[in-house]
Amino acid sequence: MSSVPLTLDATQTDLAADVGVYAYIVGLVAGVFYRLDANGVPQAMTLNDNTQAAQSFPDSGQLDAAAIAALQPNYPLAWADYSIALARTAPATQLDLSQINTTTVPGLGIGANAFSGRIYVSVGLPRLPFTVQASGYAAPVPYADGPGAQCLFDWIEFSYDSEGNFNGNTTQVDQFGFAMSLDGAPGGSLQGAMSLTRDALLAKIGALTGPFVDSGSLVAVNAAAAAAYPANLSTLRAQSPKTLTAMGSYSGGLTDYFNDTLSAWYLNWQTTPLVVNDGATGYYTGVVDSGSGVLNFYQGQYTTLAQWQAAAPAVAFAMVGAAPSTVQIASIDVWQCANSLTAGGAAQQNVGKNIAAAFNRGVPGYLLDDTVCHSEAGSFYPSGGTWNAWAAIMHAANTNGLAYGFPYDDVCQQSPTIQLNAATQVNVVIGKFYS
């Protein structure tokens, strides 16, 4: 197989020349976890990789005692340093994706057997800790506390298969640390390019009103460890509502944010059915049972209650909300795109993702059709509506309007994904921090 250059370009950013930028490339194939070494060769993760002692980190000698103490909680466990130092001046760092092959990665195939992973990038002295465990590894987290939480980082999600096909996307599902763009050939299109500066985007998130106020979204640099980061950066990241609601204690008014809207639509769906078509499993019609309050789905397309009653179809599946004992989809289900919205078989999951996307975008209704709704993107996030303000900001900030602002943001072709069949090159560019 010909080489497939993966360019990791840290030469175009406006960071000072002495600021370290590191990549970490990890993935999973057939139950085995891999990382790429500095030469781009896949290596199976092993417990022996955890050579960094807990509460220790490389280059700590460059910091004073107060900074070291502030960063030690970033490394609660023994960990593996999988960092690949990226060149800060041209030529940019290149690895060869074709080294991910059936020889270096037994079991590599297509579909579910592709190499499924992430390209993490960190900036500054604190490197990302990966703690290999008996089954899998503990990954860095975007939360305010936990392994890697005091690192300035972001990532790109991707898969690469035995036929050399690359599928990847930029993402702000969990957090925004800094901009990274993604492109490639053949047939790629630039994704992740921002129309706002990092500071301007963080300011928009910090200025959100309603339940987003004081949500804990913005994670500040620990002042005692400021010397470990690029100069004049006060914020490590912004955390998404998905992350905040997963943390529970930080969720505030987000916990029940969609409740009233959900209840109103459940009342509507008692008398006017909800028809969902995701383009894969066909049409399913949802009707709320007036007695139990459960949203039941029936295979087929019934746009009126009379049509549904005349057909008298059997229940295909029911949407039952998150615990404790709720009969309807809950706000936490929408934020997390989880629970009732990921339960059941393929048909139920496909219906669930369309419902999750509709509420996140503020456009629930009587017809959710993934085969046509990409043309309706201009109606998403309507003024005065109830929707995911984080996702709206992320779409507006991307130059092409595409973003992954929540887990099912691919519905209606809104995700920043590129599919490169028989890829010949993949380019990742670290964005600017000050301009």
Automatic annotation (TrEMBL):
It holds the Pfam family Glyco_hydro_64. Residues 1-432 form the GH64 domain. Gene3D superfamilies: Thaumatin. It comes from the Bacteria. InterPro entries: Glyco_hydro_64, Glyco_hydro_64_fam, Osmotin/thaumatin-like_sf. PANTHER family: GLUCANASE B, PTHR38165. This is Beta-1,3-glucanase family protein. It comes from Lysobacter gummosus.
